[in-house]
């Protein structure tokens, strides 16, 4: 468990998720889906059940190259980061992550702190040699966080999102862990 202090002075705890967090996490993901168009799921589209989430968390715990981090205020999840490494030998050194926080907590340093934790975890694990992500090309807040922490743009994927009839492009970004 790590304690961080937000720009507004509030205290937030960061820790890896456990199976018992499934209900809180599903509740959080349903809420955050309605707050941002930058995620791969929109309002009402997060359909994973609590028991399915329990399985995901259990698998995440067992697999060496997966990482599920929660940001908590008291016992409420207000942010999360999920990294999944490759399942085969030739790609197990690399993986992709997604990160989010509740809108009322944006711009307070949580996103930065969670990605920093991921980078530190990857360095300590000594298996992950590259962290990847996809981000909508107009998501300047997220891009600012990633670039600040050393991620570089590696390419543009056109038409990655289709939201209410509008296509959005994404950047592929990466950070080498050496
Ligand atoms: C992206 C997200 C995780 C970032 O978390 P956060 O806690 O808001 O980020 P932080 O406060 O750590 O950092 C935000 C940075 O962006 C900057 N910023 C804010 N608005 C910005 C904008 N419109 N353009 C550029 N930079 C911006 C802030 O100043 C801050 O930079 P600084 O630390 O140098 O001052 C969060 O905003 C979120 O959940 N967004 C919706 C979901 C999402 O987009 N997820 C990422 C998908 S790839």
Write up this protein.
The protein has an 8-stranded mixed sheet, with helices on both faces. 28% of the residues lie in helices and 37% in strands. Helix 1 (22-33) crosses helix 2. It has a single domain (2-129), classed as Gcn5-related N-acetyltransferase (GNAT) (Aminopeptidase, 3-Layer(aba) Sandwich), CATH 3.40.630. It has 4 helices and 8 strands. It is of the alpha+beta class and 178 residues long. The site of coenzyme A has 21 residues, from strand 5, helix 3 and helix 4.
Helix content: 25-40%
Overall CATH class: Alpha Beta
Mean pLDDT: 96
**Record field, number of beta strands:** 8
Instruction: List low-pLDDT spans.
Output: none
Major sheet description: 8 strands, mixed
Oligomer: single chain
What structural class should be given to the helix and strand makeup?
alpha+beta
Number of alpha- plus pi-helical segments? 4
Quick gist of this model?
The protein has 178 residues and is an alpha+beta fold.
Which helices and strands appear, and what pairs or packs with what?
Elements: E1 2-5, E2 11-16, H1 22-33, H2 50-62, E3 66-73, E4 76-85, E5 94-101, H3 110-125, E6 130-136, H4 140-148, E7 152-163, E8 166-176
Parallel strand pairs: 5-6
Antiparallel strand pairs: 1-2, 2-3, 3-4, 4-5, 6-8, 7-8
Helix pairs in contact: 1-2
Bound molecules: coenzyme A.
Keywords: Ribonucleoprotein, Ribosomal protein, Transferase
Domain N-acetyltransferase: 12-178
Protein name: Acetyltransferase, ribosomal protein N-acetylase
